[in-house]
Amino acid sequence: MRFTPEKLSIPDQRMKAFIDPDELWRLINNTKADKTRVREIISKSLAKNRLTLEETAVLINASGTDLMEEIKQGAKELKKIVYGNRIVLFAPLYVGNKCSNNCQYCGFRASNKDAVRKTLADTELTLEVEALEDNGQKRLILVYGEHPDYSAEYIAHTVRLVYGVKKGHGEIRRVNINAAPFDIEGFRKIGEAGIGTYQVFQETYHPEAYTWYHLGGKKKEYEWRLTSLDRAQEAGIDDVGIGALFGLYDWRFEVMGLVRHTNHLEACYNVGPHTISFPRIKDAAKLNLKEEYSVTDSDFSKLVAILRLAVPYTGLILTAREAPDVRREVIEYGVSQIDGGTKIELGSYSASQNEDQNLNREQFRISDARSLAEVIDELLNNDYLPSFCTSCYRMGRTGEHFMEFSVPGFIKRFCTPNAILTLSEYICDYASGELAEKGWKAIEKNLITLEPGVMNTTREKIEKIKAGERDLYF
Ligand code: SAM
Ligand code: SF4
């Protein structure tokens, strides 16, 4: 059901710039964090309530090892009780790096004349998807620069192409998008191609800081970017992802901006963001940044724990921009999706030789270059259940993380069995030896946590997978 402002007789805030920097700074500067208050707020979140801006500011202001530890423990607890031990896996696929914008932090920016510009031809895109399928990937996010060549029609074309590529048992079952924002008509065309989530990161929610970094092209218009997911919603895309690029401005302000964006979407469209991303700036060709805002590892883990508690129903995405040890720690605070086997240089999944990373065709440097199998191996070692599930999207259940969060018993009836089935497929098709053995052990361990009826049906489906059937889900 859609929100109709007239009926609720409150002002229609759709398409309105909703960030008031003074309000956010006032809350950050005037909110005190004492132990009792911090504990109350953690309990509110553990009772599955989204936090207000003021409550988020209290957590931001919490200092001292003990309080920080309580916030991190709260985030861990929330992850455990709400989401369980599954981690959804995906891979990014860069389609083209032409760009008319001039974002000072990005290797693709127009003024970087050394960048080798490339858009994958359909045949090259097909090869990339086949290579990703050969690794066992089922969920991709397609990434594009912002350029007239990457029109809504072109993006929709690439989405359809990707869905059509099948190799052996391989297929891509969910295509998410990270691309420039469009007008309503453009979003509608892309939505019709059957995308999963449409991500647009605001980069920085601070209007003035935004002008420091965005020096050219359409992206320099702060409000066009800020209201982009309103246009996506108006176009019928209700599965949207927000994000901030940490390191451009004060991280505390960006956390408040993300929460403000969340309550704007909730108030206007009756649905919050499906995912929140929190990329931290990484080395890119001729990076042009303000050092004072760089985010330490310790602040980074703090901000992830705060985001988990502030918006308990969203998926949190952590990418290979971060090094394995940072990922290992931060995953515990409630991350629900990570990429594995990531390569961001255009055309590199299918390249015959794994060339050295070359900053001229990639946007920035990643810090976790492990293969998908290595990432899965580590997840299994740490008692996580890797999942390639795409069931909610294909059954028309919008917002997989929201379903997990809001429907009692949903995880045990749907998510865990589907994770088990997609991991079984992965093992049968792409794993061998020790990894396969570890995977089957994890499957058995998770199977016995299910209700007897669901457990038995899941076991039957696993036998069918072993016999060659694919794409079985609840
Ligand atoms: N061109 C589109 C845009 O700007 O929205 C979409 C693709 S852009 C390649 C995806 C995201 O990468 C950006 O939104 C930004 O947050 C992130 N990014 C850009 N430069 C980065 C860097 N040096 N380190 C880490 N992330 C970066
Ligand atoms: Fe272009 Fe996006 Fe990079 Fe900005 S962040 S230069 S819009 S690819």
Strand order of the largest sheet: 1-2-5-6-7-8-9-10
> What percentage of amino acids are in beta strands?
5-15%
Determine and state the CATH class of the largest domain: Alpha Beta
Shape: globular
Structural class: alpha/beta
CATH superfamily of the largest domain: Aldolase class I
Query: How much is the radius of gyration in Å?
Result: 22 Å
Small molecules bound in the structure, each named once: S-adenosylmethionine, iron/sulfur cluster
CATH architecture of the largest domain: Alpha-Beta Barrel
Low-confidence spans: none
What is the CATH topology assignment of the largest domain? Answer: TIM Barrel
Our count of helices gives 20
Break the fold down into its secondary structure elements and pairings.
Elements: H1 5-8, H2 21-30, H3 35-46, H4 53-61, H5 65-83, E1 86-96, H6 122-135, E2 139-144, H7 152-164, E3 166-167, E4 170-171, E5 174-178, H8 184-192, E6 198-199, H9 207-213, H10 222-226, H11 228-234, E7 240-243, H12 251-269, E8 275-277, H13 297-310, E9 315-318, H14 324-331, E10 337-339, H15 372-381, E11 385-387, H16 391-394, H17 400-406, H18 410-430, H19 433-447, H20 452-466
Parallel strand pairs: 1-2, 1-10, 1-11, 2-5, 5-6, 6-7, 7-8, 8-9, 9-10
Antiparallel strand pairs: 3-4
Helix pairs in contact: 2-12, 3-5, 4-12, 4-13, 5-13, 7-8, 12-13, 15-19, 18-19, 18-20
